Amino acid sequence: MPETPPHEIREEIEKLVRELNYHCYRYYVLDSPVISDAEYDLLYRKLKDIEEKSGYILPDSPTLRVGAPALEKFEKVKHAEPMLSLDNAFSYDEVREFDKRIKKLLNTEEDIEYTVEPKYDGLAIELTYRKGLLFRASTRGDGYEGEDVTRNIRTIKSVPLKIEGQGHIPEEIDIRGEVYMDIKDFEALNRQREKQGEAVFANPRNAAAGSVRQLDPSITAARRLYLACYGLGAVKGIDFLTHSDLMSWLRESRFPTPADMKIVKGVEGVIAFVRVLEAERASYGFETDGAVLKVNDFSLQRKLGVKTREPRWATAYKFQAHQGTTRIMDIQGSVGRTGVITPFAIFEPVRIGGVTVSRSTLHNWDEIGRKDIRIGDTVVVERAGDVIPHVLMVVKEKRTGKERPLPVPENCPACSSRVVRDEGEVAVRCVSLHCPAQVREKIGHFASRGGMDIEGLGEKNVELLYSRGLIRHFEDIYKLRKEYLLELPRFGEKSAQNLMDAIERSKKPLLSKFLFALGILHVGEYVAKLLAKNFRQLEDLYHISYEHIMGIKQMGEKIASSISTFFNDKKNLDLLDVMINVHGLKISNPDFVAGRQEKGSLNGLTFVITGILPKSRKEVERLIEANGGRASSAVSAGTDFLVTGEDPGAKLLKAQALGVRTISYDKLVKLIEEKRENPRLF
Ligand code: IVH
User: Fold this and answer.
1) Which residue, 193, 286, 563, 590, is most buried by CB atoms nearer than 10 A?
2) What's the number of domains the chain is made of?
3) How far is the CA of 233 from the centre of ligand 1 (A)?
4) Atom of ligand 1 nearest to the CA of 86
């Protein structure tokens, strides 16, 4: 134990902790910060610095939110009061029945006072505070016994580490709430996981639960999670008369509470407010699947009691799911850039959650077989949040016998040539080099933002130029002339000139963008960048062998085979020569890292550093470089790892958005060692 530091230091630390916790509350609970992130960072660093020098850390110090080591397993926690679940009401009539039941049990004719609030779709958590300090956080588990997830819950910035503010501080209190994830953050997380080849979460609820039930708190810390507190477990040293009292106390004590709550007398008023919540549902950034109705008066709640696992004084009105029933009029195949034929259903248009849905992808032909989807079938279609609609199931009872199953196509819907299906693959593919659908997609891909970035060459214009025979291949883009464009219906003087200018500008691409634009099978943005890092110029790839590509870390067999096939095909090489020598493309490659092949176990990997690490930034950079890696100052799509220390900055957010993996300093050191033993680890 370090000695207690002098009075002034303690006071300074107390003041900084108080200030930082207040700003955290303004930012994460009220969503209304009063200082900038940079000012916050400055205060945080100052506190961290004094804490380190003095060894004096308050139990509610924000520096304690991060940095806990990973666990082997979670400890079990018994809840002092069981965590109950809720009964459901699926219609307004069922809400009226709920109200009737309550009146009957309470033997009263008078209108009951209820609270109505949104139901959060996340993970239920109990927060135990002792003498005002967060003592433990646990999951619901089976209601009686859950798991100790304190270290993870601490990383959620809206969870108070100490009960502060205006409210009275009880001896002990169990506060219940839901940890959830915003839809935007959920989608970003899934995009990142998809990029890294990890399984995606089915919905924000699973994502929130998966993020909390992590043995390594740094994973939880990297996810954006929120809390909404809605109830109470055991308490000592404080009394609340009503649910709305409890909510006021929670708000005064800086706890986040549900976005909307209303006290309503009488069931018709309840229903009216439920309607409001249902209408507002789409505008919330999070998923809610219903409204929770509670008898406001705690003494009445006690009188009503509990029925098996559910309180009699509350119910959850379930919103209409974002589902609809419609009929499949047709199933067609659409041909992508690589020739993969993806089936999609055309529906009798149906309104679901305020949007008209008339088609949806069926993913692949195996899926059609698995769900036994036929043309003419009545199906349930679901649209969750902003997610694209999908067919949930077939209503088989509605079958008339006239429905037609659709065989896997034998011919391409766009060019009629015979399709192939590789062994073990679900994809059906058109391999014709002249398939117009593929050619159009390839041209669009070439011109796309991630490729040559030719503004004005979107889907519609590609279609038009293709149908007029002006572009039959992406190379033809560079043969276009303004006069040709001016003859087309969609072009005027200005738009034609703009397109010509954009085409001219695209003639100076980065090698990585150019390689991506070529649309070589399995060469996405990431692989293209990797190639650019390893090859000084395009010509160095000509006649490249499969083995050579396989020798580059992170390249797999499929990728190596596709790249070497492409660069050993004389037609392709001739085409590249024409692009460079005739059309005047000037390809530059700032990504190339000289000498990166020889150095060490971090060859080919780019690192960015953020936050406070156990070693100075310079030392960490030298460590990376000494092992053949590259240390860069800015996170980009080409970054392989973000080395994250305590209190990471905006780089972490950027890395998450781009799907860049994060590792701690310790993991970096381990990585260097492991990769020495097994160089093909990544
Ligand atoms: S009150 C006695 N209020 O829904 C039950 N629960 O399906 C106390 N939930 O286990 C729950 N939002 O995890 C309550 N505003 C809210 C809620 C809510 C979400 C969850 C909670 C509960 C589950 C029941």
Assistant:
1) 563
2) 6
3) 12
4) 24
Give the residue, by CA position, lying nearest to ligand 1 atom 17: 119
Helix H, strand E, coil C: the string for 384-426 is CCCCCCEEEEECHHHCCCCCEECCCCCECCCCCCEEECCCCCC
Contact status, residue 377 vs residue 391, Cβ threshold 8 Å: no
Catalytically annotated residues? 119
Q: Does residue 445 form part of some domain?
A: yes
Q: Which residue has the tokens 């490729």?
A: 451
From the CA of 85, how far away is ligand 1's center (Å)? 6
Average pLDDT over residues 276-304: 92
CB contact at 8 A, 586 and 571: no
CATH of the domain at 49: 1.10.287.610
Q: How far is the CA of 24 from the centre of ligand 1 (A)?
A: 26
Can you give the residue range of the structural domain that contains 91?
Answer: 87-318
Q: 84: CA distance to ligand 1 center in Å? A: 8
List CB contacts of 526: < 8 A, sequence separation 6 or more.
195, 637
Query: Which residue among 178, 246, 286 is best mutated to probe the pocket of ligand 1, counting the most ligand atoms within 8 A of its Cβ?
Result: 178
Q: Indicate the pTM of the whole model.
A: 0.55
Measure 125 CA to ligand 1 centroid, in angstroms. Answer: 10
> Taking CB atoms and a 6 Å cutoff, what residues make up the pocket around ligand 1?
84-86, 117, 119-120, 124, 178, 230-231, 258, 292, 311, 314, 316
Mutation to probe ligand 1, out of 86, 286, 287 (largest number of atoms < 8 A from CB): 86
Nearest atom in ligand 1 to 117's CA: 15
**Going by CA atoms, what residue is nearest to atom 13 of ligand 1?**
124
User: Which CATH number covers residue 340?
Assistant: 2.40.50.140
pLDDT in tens, 105-124: 999 999 999 999 999 999 99
**Residue 524: which pLDDT band, with cuts at 50, 70 and 90?**
confident
> Residue 128: CA atoms inside 13 Å, Cβ hemisphere, count?
19
306 and 357 in a single domain? The answer is: no
Residues 128 and 237 reside in one and the same domain: yes
- In a domain? residue 239: yes
Which pLDDT value is given to residue 618? 77
pLDDT per residue as tens digits for the range 380-430: 898 765 457 888 888 888 999 999 998 899 999 999 999 998 777 778 999
CA of 293 to the centre of ligand 1 (A): 10
Tokens describing residue 75: 């400890």
CATH of the domain at 237: 3.30.470.30
Under DSSP, is residue 123 helix (H, G, I), strand (E, B) or coil?
Answer: strand
Mutate to test the pocket of ligand 1, among 119, 139, 261 (most ligand atoms within 8 A of CB): 119
Shared domain for 633 and 554, answered yes or no, is no
Residue 94 and residue 35 in one domain: no
263 and 136 assigned to the same domain = yes
Same-domain pairing of 564 and 640: no
Compute the CA torsion angle 531, 536, 542, 547 (nearest 10 deg): -50
Domain co-membership, 501 together with 520: no
pLDDT tens digit sequence for 180-221 = 999 889 888 988 887 776 777 767 888 999 999 999 999 999
**Residue 184: how many CB atoms within 10 A of its CB?**
14
